[in-house]
Structure formats: structure tokens, C-alpha cells
Amino acid sequence: MSRLAELRKAKGLTQRELAQRVKVSTQAICNYERGHRQGPVEKWQAIAKALGVKLVELFPDAAQ
User: Fold this and answer.
1) Distance (Å, whole) CA 25 – CA 57
2) How far apart, in Å, are the Cα atoms of 7 and each of 10, 48, 51?
3) Interior CA angle at 50 toward 16 and 8, to 5°?
4) DSSP state of 61
5) Which of the listed CATH numbers 1.10.260.40, 3.20.20.80, 1.10.10.10, 3.40.50.720 matches domain 3-55?
6) How would DSSP label each residue in 26-50?
7) Residue pLDDT, tens place only, 28-58
């Protein structure tokens, strides 16, 4: 499971609910979680804000 999916589920959100909060499609969230697509940094910032985490928490491997 991706870090995004883990954080989303920990917040009790569905992909659809997160998508609505960040103003993207449910399919976009699905693709982000699977690693099939990378969105612009602004979308990742919005996702982090919606989940109440820092941007770096979405990409723990990049912080090392």
C-alpha cells in the first residue's frame, strides 16, 4: 500500500472524499496511490493539507 493510501485511510477518507477536497478526479487519486501518475506539486500540497500532514510525509523515501 502506498503512503498516500495509508494516510488517507488513517484519516478515514475514501478516494472520492479526498478527490473532492483536493478538486481532482477519483481516478487521479487512484493513479497517485498506485504510482501511475505524478501530479503537479500544487496538487500534492493540497493533498497533504487535506490529510493534515507535511508534504514530506507523503514521500518518506525522498526525505532520506
Assistant:
1) 22
2) 5, 9, 7
3) 55
4) T
5) 1.10.260.40
6) HHHHHHHHHTS----HHHHHHHHHH
7) 999 999 988 888 999 999 999 999 999 999 9
